[in-house]
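>> Question from a student workshop board

For tomorrow's exercise we were told to take the sequence and the ligand below, predict the bound structure, and bring the output to class. My setup keeps failing. Could a helper post the expected result so I can at least see what it should look like? The ligand is pyridoxal-5'-phosphate.
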Amino acid sequence: MIPIAQPLLGADEYEAVLAVLTSGLMAQGEQVARFEKRFAELSQTEEAVAVSSGTAALHLALLAHDIGPGDEVITSPFSFAATANTILLVGAKPVFVDIEADTYNLDPALVERAITPRTKAIMPVHLYGNPADMGRLMPLAQAHGLVMIEDACQAHLASIDGKTVGSFGTGCFSFYPTKNMTTGEGGIVTTNDPEIAERVRLLRSHGQKQRYLHVAIGYNLRMTDIQGAIGNAQIKKLEGFNERRIQNAQYLNERLSEYVQTPVVRPGHRHVYHQYTIRARGDRDQWVKTLGERGIGTGIHYPRPIHKQPFYIEQGFDMSLPVAEAAAAEVICLPVHPALTNDDLERVAQEVIALCR
Ligand SMILES: *Cc1c(COP(=O)(O)O)cnc(C)c1O
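>> Workshop helper replied:
Here is what the output should look like for this input. Compare the format with yours to find the bug.
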């Protein structure tokens, strides 16, 4: 079976974790500090603040920007539920606008139309590792005085004309095991604003400016040094992992583009292929079943847009967003991760082609 995702862990990670366990210092410490410094450098930002998950990163980024009751946040319905859940968790209202049919990212023209006097932020998702159209979204945010919070949980070191995602506004990343790099569970907030970084630091650790000096209310959403050590080992390999993903995607593009809709990447955009997503032709359930029987793992990201989730329907968010709904019905993700061999890739391509014939 060729899995849809596979974290690449080896001696570096094992030794790093053992060293932390041996030291006895397991909570947030030196390893996390080192990881933050390196992640900020790679992300081209002044600061990076590590937290316990990508969800925590989104949640604390919203709180750090004072987003709460009465505020609207424009976001994508075609994402993992965490994107919109965190907006609800701070008491604000997610305003879903439809996506572009080719990139699956927020449609800037529709974002512009959704702006109201209550809009406080735009939260685009760089879905599958493909940058959202920041060239059009940033001017909108600037013209209307809106906060930009990027859900970059799938897009480590993706970029636009060399500028990394997560450096346009406040960036939120995840290190869940299937992501382009992992710390087991983990996340990070990137920013060039020292005040936002300081607020996230306070929020992640009970508002403590120093030990037992509480200047704000906060949570415990810290990253452990065990996770930090895994992160320090993984981050050295991140660029290599991404290069492999991009090469694998190019191979699949060459083999599949005459049969199916392959990923669309805008000029100057660097897609880092957290997922390689195509549209199934015909019965998608049958594709998943047949590919599975032939030993090809697939993923559906996402089978149901957020505004059609039972909880969101209950809360009155049901509406018609036809492009996102069509994407949810048709997309299928194929293996693209760096552990694939050339033979694996060719098998994936052949089985997909067989389904199209
Ligand atoms: C993974 C992911 C998250 C949440 O990250 P966790 O680390 O699982 O909390 C949020 N948004 C998107 C788009 C993601 O892919």
